[in-house]
Design a protein that fits this description.
Blueprint: E1 11-17, H1 24-31, H2 42-58, E2 64-67, H3 71-84, H4 100-110, E3 116-121, H5 125-135, E4 150-155, E5 164-170, H6 172-177
Helix pairs in contact: 2-3
């Protein structure tokens, strides 16, 4: 299997939805803590570990690994970081909710041509972002992201609505099977 890598004049963005976390309502009732602190379940951690290993079979290298600061996304990113040997960061533009223009502009300044970046986040941010980036869809979500799913987008020009190309998308179970 050939690993995905950007050409020297393109960039590769890999979007990953966080792995399985506990129920939001139950977490609140049992802990009284905000949803942003809700962690992955034990099963979510195991599945993420296997999915991150599968992701390493698809992605040639990672130059940047960024995550939402929410606990479940951060834990997912940490699992990916272990596999790729790249530290994760939680920059301000990945604080939910993601804002298309802010995130696009920030990525434009951070990801150089020939580089690969992984972004770990949440729904509905990921589906909305994908819909707008791939086809300029105004608020529609034509590419739903299941828990633990990942997709790769190739960028040959500016990061803007309707300009990115979908290279591949796999659900978590597909990544785990790799």
């Amino acid at each position: 299997m050939k690993k995905t890598a950007p050409a020297p004049d393109t960039r590769l963005l890999v979007l990953v939805r966080h792995a399985q976390a506990g129920d939001a309502e139950r977490f609140w009732q049992e802990t009284g803590r905000p949803d942003r602190e809700r962690p992955l379940t034990g099963e979510g951690r195991k599945r993420n570990e296997a999915a991150a290993s599968g992701l390493s079979r698809l992605v040639a290298r990672v130059d940047h690994l960024w995550s939402s600061p929410y606990t479940r996304a951060w834990q997912t990113a940490q699992g990916i970081a272990e596999v790729f040997g790249r530290p994760a960061e939680a920059p301000d533009p990945l604080e939910p909710p993601w804002r298309l223009q802010t995130l696009s502009d920030w990525l434009e300044s951070q990801v150089a041509r020939g580089e690969t970046a992984i972004l770990v986040g949440h729904e509905p941010d990921l589906s909305t972002l994908l819909g707008k980036w791939l086809c300029g869809a105004g608020g529609r979500a034509p590419v739903p992201m299941e828990k633990g799913a990942a997709c790769a987008l190739q960028v040959s020009g500016r990061i803007a609505p309707g300009t990115l190309e979908l290279v591949w998308k796999l659900p978590q179970y597909g990544l785990r099977r790799l």
